[in-house]
Amino acid sequence: MYNQTKTPRKPDTKSHEGGASYKLDPKLELLSILATGFGNQFYERLSDRETRLDNLVKEISKKDPTFVAKALVYTRSVTGQRSATHFGSNSLTPYLSGNALGKRFFSKRNKKSNTGGIIYRLDDMLEIFSCYKHFNPGKPMPNSMKRGFKMALEEADSYELAKYQGKNKNTSLIDIVNLVHPTPKPEMQETFRLLMEGKLKQHNTVENKNTSSGIEISKKVKEGKITKEEAKTELKEKKEENYAELILEGKIGYLALLRNLRNLLKNSDNNEVIDAACKFLTNKKRVRKSLVFPHQIDLALEMMLLEGADVPTKVKKSLDTAYNLAIPNLTELFPYGKTAVVYDSSGSMTFQSANINGKRSPKAPLKKAALMAATLGKGVDAEIFHFASTCRKVDYNPLDSINTISNLCRSKAGEVGIGTNFDSVFNKLNGRFDRVFIITDLQGDRLLEKWKYGNTHIYSIDLCGYGSTVFKPGEKVYQLFGYSSETYELIKRVEVDPKALLKDVESIVI
């Protein structure tokens, strides 16, 4: 009577293609939305996604608001998502009233001790409060938010206050200061005075220095001191000096260098500066600290090539090295067995989602899937397949660069139809692999029966976060969400501990 037979779980929802599916546990569904972010998806509008996230936060917070708080902080500080965490923070706010968690949650994240709240950068305050005002017009800032923001401002340094002023935003840092009334430390009082008077200048950034140079040179032209042609030459030289100073002295941010790489190559013929930039890009500590996504590095090179830039070979090699540094070393990830990586090339994966501002994203799910497939394929010497209506192997050269393999994978879209037939994957693989990665949006037209994959380890990597799966939850099905370097860290551990993701979230200290 004590060792009773377990009741098999039955499908309890339908996919967007109408097939039977399993609904994710609420906590996993919450993580799936946060990790995959906001925007209009192929099967889901932004407004529907917001509603689903709001409902999930409320459902879980009634019993466990601490988990929701940790999930938001984890997603913002570890995987780098912003808009979804700002929205989720507002949904959580009513459940923070009257307890100590609220103040801590809205405080500043200490990157050295890895403790603290949702404010990873000071402009997170501007976005969170703007979101609050949008959904709560006329209501005052909640006390928990006010106390947390006050702490964040009091702990900020001059560089942060100058960089994230938000002068051209509807909600600026001055607005936040006026609402929460921080008490600056004695050494910061002058900085706050300049901030409130609109005189606090940003320093040591490419944009600021180049803007200042442009203004200075334009003034010379107006005064007749130099011609327009001379101004072009002088501005080019001045920009080169600015890049040289910031790069050689290590004052530029990693993402700022990626964004400005095209301009650096355009304005500098100095090999010393370009060599320093390459060294900067391939600094392992800087890569990890920046939270840069591997596909952001790939995109930086792609955009330069699309614009016809003459990219030196050493820069291409540095970006390729940087990409590999943005993910953990995968060569010893699986010491035994055969691995297959299968990415979804169906029609819904080629859809370019629109972000919250309505602009089309250049990063369709297929692009992320192809990049991840190439990374895993090369990193663990895996066979690569793609599927839609049917499944087919992708023959690639493991000696090629990640970019080359990724582009090959993307080019296969449409070759095997536009449907989403998960059965075709396991009919093709035929039990030949110890583990299989499925990189997909998990929206099929029928349920995938357990016998199809048997005892194979299944890594289900959900790139869209629709809240359901065709895989019957089990001890050898591992659910991962979104695309960041942390995904690869989790891959290392889930075979040993299937609940690694949930444990990582629970371990967050606020």
Task: Describe the protein in words.
The longest helix is centred in the middle third of the chain and has 21 residues. With 510 residues, the protein is an alpha/beta fold. The chain is built from 22 helices and nine strands. About 1% of the residues have low confidence. α18 links the parallel β3 and β4. It has a six-stranded mixed sheet. It has a three-stranded antiparallel sheet with strand order 1-2-8, with no helix packed on it.
Which terms would index this structure?
single chain, 3 domains, 22 helices, 510 residues, Rossmann fold, alpha/beta, three-stranded antiparallel sheet, 49% helix, six-stranded mixed sheet
Straight-line distance between termini: 44 Å
Structural class: alpha/beta
Which range best describes the helical content: under 10%, 10-25%, 25-40%, 40-55%, 55-70% or over 70%? 40-55%
Let me know the number of strands. 9
Strand content: 5-15%
Name the assembly state: single chain
Total domain count: 3
Please give the order of strands in the largest beta sheet: 5-4-3-6-7-9
Count of helical regions:
22
The coarse silhouette is: globular
The pLDDT mean sits at 84
Short description:
With 510 residues, the chain is an alpha/beta fold. Helices cover 49% and strands 8% of the residues.
